[in-house]
Design brief:
- The structure holds 2 protein chains of 2 kinds.
- Chain A has helices spanning 2-22, 28-32, 34-37, 40-45, 49-62, 65-70, 72-87, 99-114, 118-124, 126-155, 171-191, 194-198, 201-210, 229-232, 256-260, 282-300, 334-340, 346-350, 383-387, 398-401, 417-420, 427-431, 464-468, and strands at 216-219, 239-240, 245-246, 266-269, 356-358, 368-370, 404-411, 437-444, 447-454, 477-487.
- By secondary structure, chain A is mostly helical.
- Chain A has 2 domains: 2-269, no CATH class; 406-483, Alpha-Beta Plaits.
- In chain A, the strands form 5 sheets. A two-stranded antiparallel ribbon of chain A has the order 1-4. A two-stranded antiparallel sheet of chain A has the order 2-3.
- The radius of gyration of chain A is 27 Å and the shape is elongated.
- Chain B folds into 2 domains: 2-361, NADP-dependent oxidoreductase domain (TIM Barrel, Alpha-Beta Barrel), CATH 3.20.20.100; 383-465, no CATH class.
- Chain B is 40% helix and 11% strand.
- Chain B is built from 16 helices and 10 strands.
- Chain B has helices spanning 2-12, 85-97, 114-122, 146-159, 182-191, 195-204, 219-231, 247-250, 260-269, 290-299, 305-314, 329-338, 347-361, 383-395, 407-423, 449-465, and strands at 47-49, 56-58, 60-63, 102-104, 131-136, 165-173, 208-215, 238-242, 274-277, 319-324.
- In chain B, helix 2 (85-97) links the parallel strand 3 and strand 4 (102-104).
- The radius of gyration of chain B is 22 Å and the shape is globular.
- Classes of the chains: A mainly alpha, B alpha/beta.
């Protein structure tokens, strides 16, 4: 029964999380956005204290059900573990808790969070790891399907699906996603929830709460015939049937052992234990509670015309080297982003203008950054701020957005077609949504021409000028990020 | 302009019988017309005789500018697209079989492949069974020297697989640019280099049978070359003009442009045979809004909308042939029907079409005929596709209107924006027009292309922001 409920919840949760991370549109983020916001670390980072409290309370009462039915990476591992079980039955045996690795890594992780060392925090945050797998590996497949449907729609004059660009936003992130998937699939196939019980910082943290959870799997010594089926099927390798003990810090309450026991010797109940296997180590508990508090603190922190017709070939734009990364409106500053973002790629998947992509530099590893080769940050769009579960991109309104200066435009004289092609232009000025660009007379080599002049006070760094600049592959006007967003 | 107004009325009654229009001005008061069933195409093709050479020319002329493209793709969208020669052959065969004998091409058409394709298709038939018209095009100033022009002419003969051209045109005179007035451009292209004199020699040598020009743009230049004709300086064997029931009286707006009634009358009174181009305004007169379609169908239930325009263009006396750029076999079959034989427009129908024209110009569409002379845009835009999409939405009533909060508006907005992306890739949309103005000189319709593109772009931007 417990197992069946668990599987049902897993299917529902996995579907919602995946749809959300695929960025399929259809207002999914409005009705399924909550599944990202109940993820432990994102909630912790978003300083939605209420949610973290609820999750911890949930764990104190029911054990680590979070790891079974809320965490998408856990559900994914269960899937591979289940496949492994098909290949080889009854393959698990009790393993001792790897205390030093577990808590040692948690400590390292917390320190990394306090200092905002993104490569470590983003890499091991479980929900985000799954987000990257979806964004890098599944989204292109979904987009193919979407474009096929869009083609059908176009042929039948329907307007449900629209064609999207399929592109790899970052090769590094793509490689990380593949490695994550392969390693976790292999580990889950062979060793079940090994990752969750040794490396995962969320698993370790919740394990501290679940050690003494109210509801837990308990042995009925009288009924147990010591057949060992429970231990052999415990993917957390947390049951020692000979001693009759369950390591509750590693049990993810999957219910498999209950189903496997033919003698009704295991129960998931809140009954007071007759005899505890281990005395509570109060000192250790104190340390861990302290660590959790520390975690919370970290969170606060041209062609010649000879014939008619035909189309000119359009060269792809290349991203300019920006001194400062541009982060989306609502993210306050690159530093705020660095400390709060877990690089789940939800915003990247959902950016309708192909602006957001994961950064490749170490300190902002895989966290979203903006670039304008394929589109620009449209004034009417606040999607990333709506979907962000961690508060790295805070919710903003359309009106607020026009006052947030994420960067400023810089003119590159050498690329400007007014000077290189000798034509009149002004496409940047024409499209600037804040009217920050004016065309000014300028003494060029072949007489007076009009070139763009940027009013730094008005420029919000949306990238319309950079995106629509006719100079290719490098635009003649580009956006340089602001260290901290200016609010006007 | 008094003379033009006068001629407008005279020309409108250019049916052989010359019934004065005012006689039927009051037909609005008569009882409504009940839809009739009219069947066209029951007889032989109508022919017109060229007074210079005695050529019997079919009233339907085949324009080779909008040739079918392989795999049904659009040459304007697909840079690798090629002309579907098999289809061209099939259509040319059908045309000849049904009496069409005038084929109009140019070195620049269809990215330069039109002459070749026309040559391949026609060379499969006896040379005396058809007339070939081609042109000396004037797009790139590098082709403006006498030598380059001679090479262009010789290459036309080679591509068309013939040693003479029946109808040779100075391509699209009357255009101007920022630097050159229409007279200056014309002189630089055809006169100062001795090209026109050389062409006259070629005509004497029998390599050109009829020498004429096609005209778009400045009527002053038109008047000049007509004067030359009167003075005997140069003789024009024929002239190609744009004429249709909209341009007849509505091509001249705020002193810009020239009504085809004026051009036609000037030519007709001199006895110069007239070749008609853009009888359908690049297909726009075939795609009428529902309320105009209704008025047409209420008169003749089964007559295709386009037929009204072809009947109109073929009706006046002195029209040698009406060119139609027929991409699809169905267009060809329909047009052959229209002119086999021609059912001339009656004075009452002429009145009706003038009323249609009045409604049509109120649509505020962009007068683009998709001739593609502006292409390729050096900055990658697909100019004709942007205009075509916009025009279609205007004429088909697909523009979002009414209360912006209403469901209908939001639905229409979504369709307009999605349709825009579907029809034109983002990088080729109006937002990328930098206003360099390189296209405007090439537009025979004298559209201020950047201005129109910016207007459409502003409209799209406003929609996106809502």
């Amino acid at each position: 029964m417990l197992r069946k409920i668990r599987i049902c919840l897993q299917v529902v949760m996995m579907t919602l999380v995946t749809l959300l991370l695929l960025g399929i549109g259809f207002r999914v983020h409005l009705w399924a956005g909550w599944v990202a916001k109940i993820q432990f670390l994102p909630a912790l980072l978003a300083v939605t204290g209420g949610m973290v409290f609820v999750l911890i309370l949930l764990t104190f009462i029911f054990g680590r059900i979070y790891c079974s039915v809320i965490c998408p990476l856990g559900i994914m591992q269960d899937f591979f573990s289940w496949l492994g079980g098909k290949a080889k039955k009854n393959r698990f045996s009790y393993a001792k808790e790897k205390v030093w690795l577990r808590y040692g890594f948690l400590a390292v992780f917390i320190i990394a969070m306090i200092f905002g060392f993104a490569p470590l925090t983003t890499l091991f945050e479980p929900y985000s790891a799954y987000g990257r797998i979806v964004n890098s590996l599944f989204k292109p497949l979904y987009d193919l399907l979407n474009n096929w449907l869009a083609g059908m729609d176009a042929a039948n004059d329907r307007y449900n699906f629209t064609e999207v660009q399929i592109w790899t936003r970052s090769v590094t992130t793509f490689v990380v996603a593949i490695l994550t998937l392969v390693i976790l699939a292999f580990l889950a196939w062979r060793k079940g929830r090994l990752y969750c019980n040794t490396i995962c910082p969320v698993g370790t943290t919740l394990g501290l709460c679940s050690r003494n959870s109210l509801f837990r799997v308990r042995f009925d010594k009288d009924k147990c015939k010591s057949c060992g089926m429970c231990e052999k099927n415990c993917k957390a390798q947390a049951i020692d049937f000979k001693e009759g003990i369950v390591d509750y810090s590693r049990c993810v309450v999957c219910g498999d052992c209950l189903d496997k026991c033919k003698f009704d010797a295991l129960h998931y109940t809140a009954k007071k234990p007759v005899k505890e296997s281990k005395p509570v180590d109060t000192e250790r508990r104190a340390f861990l509670v302290g660590a959790a508090v520390a975690g919370t603190t970290a969170a606060l922190a041209q062609t010649e015309m000879k014939v008619d017709g035909g189309l000119a070939v359009i060269e792809d734009k290349k991203a300019p080297k920006r001194q400062t990364l541009i982060t989306p409106p609502g993210s306050v500053s690159a530093r705020h982003m660095q400390k709060h973002c877990t690089a789940c790629q939800l915003c990247v998947s959902n950016c309708p203008n192909n602006v957001l992509r994961p950064a490749t530099d170490l300190m902002h590893f895989m966290q979203p950054t903006m670039s304008f080769e394929r589109g620009y940050c449209r004034p009417e769009c606040t999607r990333c701020s709506e979907v962000c579960p961690t508060g790295a991109i805070k919710p903003i309104s359309r009106e607020e957005k026009t006052d947030i200066h994420v960067g400023h435009a810089v003119w590159i004289k050498e690329n400007c077609v007014v000077l290189t092609d000798g034509v009149s232009c002004g496409n940047c000025a024409r499209h600037c949504p804040t009217g920050a660009i004016q065309m000014i007379d300028y003494e060029g080599p072949n007489g007076t021409v009009q070139v763009p002049a940027v009013d730094e006070n008005k420029c919000i760094g949306c990238g319309a000028c950079e995106n629509l600049c006719p100079a290719r592959p490098f635009s003649a006007i580009y956006v340089e990020g602001n260290e901290m967003h200016h609010i006007s | 302009m008094d003379r033009r107004d006068f001629l407008k009325h005279m020309g409108g009654a250019a049916v052989a019988t010359s019934v004065v229009l005012s006689a039927c001005k009051n037909n609005n008061d008569e009882s409504p017309i009940i839809a009739k069933n009219v069947v066209d195409g029951q007889g032989e093709m109508t022919y017109r005789t060229n007074p210079n050479t005695g050529d019997r020319v079919s009233l339907l002329g085949y324009g080779m500018m909008r040739l079918p493209i392989e795999n049904g793709s659009d040459m304007r969208k697909d840079p690798n697209a090629r002309v579907d020669q098999e289809m061209v052959n099939e259509e040319v065969d059908y045309a000849l079989e049904h009496g069409v004998n005038y084929f109009d091409t140019a070195p620049v058409y269809t990215r330069g492949y039109s002459e070749t394709a026309t040559g391949i298709a026609l060379s499969r038939h006896p040379r005396n069974s058809y007339y070939i018209a081609t042109k000396l095009s004037n797009f790139s100033p590098t082709t403006w020297t006498l030598e380059a022009s001679q090479a262009m002419f010789e290459n036309s003969l080679k591509q068309l697989q013939t040693d003479y051209v029946d109808y040779l045109l100075l391509h699209s005179i009357g255009g101007s640019s920022k630097e050159l007035s229409s007279h200056e451009m014309f002189n630089a292209r055809f006169i100062d280099n001795g090209l026109l004199d050389w062409l006259v020699e070629q005509k004497k040598a029998g390599r050109i049978r009829n020498l004429g020009f096609s005209f778009h743009g400045d009527p002053k230049l038109f008047d000049t070359v007509m004067q030359w004709h009167d003075e005997g300086k140069y003789h024009w064997d024929f002239v190609q003009i744009q004429m249709n029931y909209v341009d007849w009286s509505f091509a001249e707006i705020d002193g810009e442009g020239v009504n085809s009634s004026y051009l036609y009358e000037e030519l007709h009174r001199r006895g110069i045979p007239v070749v008609i181009m853009e009888p359908l305004l690049g297909g726009r007169l075939a795609k009428q809004p529902d309320y105009i379609v209704k008025q047409m169908k209420e008169r003749e239930l089964e007559t295709p909308v386009a037929r009204w325009a072809f009947r109109y263009a073929g009706t006046p006396e002195g029209i040698l042939t009406v060119l139609s750029g027929m991409t699809y076999m169905e267009h060809l079959v329909q047009n052959v029907e229209t002119y086999s034989p021609l059912r001339p427009i009656t004075p009452e129908e002429d009145e009706f079409l003038m009323r249609v024209a009045e409604q049509f110009i109120k649509l505020k569409t962009v007068p683009c005929t998709a001739c593609n002379y502006c292409m390729p845009c050096p900055y990658g835009l697909n100019i004709p596709a942007v205009f075509a999409y916009y025009n279609e939405c205007v004429t088909q009533g697909k523009m979002p209107t009414g209360n912006r909060e209403a469901q209908a508006f939001r639905e229409a907005r979504k369709r307009f924006l999605i349709g825009y992306d579907r029809n034109i890739p983002a990088l080729r949309q109006a937002s990328h027009c930098i206003g360099c103005n390189q296209c405007t000189d090439h537009c025979p319709q004298e559209i201020n292309i950047p201005e129109e593109l910016h207007r459409i772009d502003d409209y799209v931007e406003q929609l996106k922001l809502q």
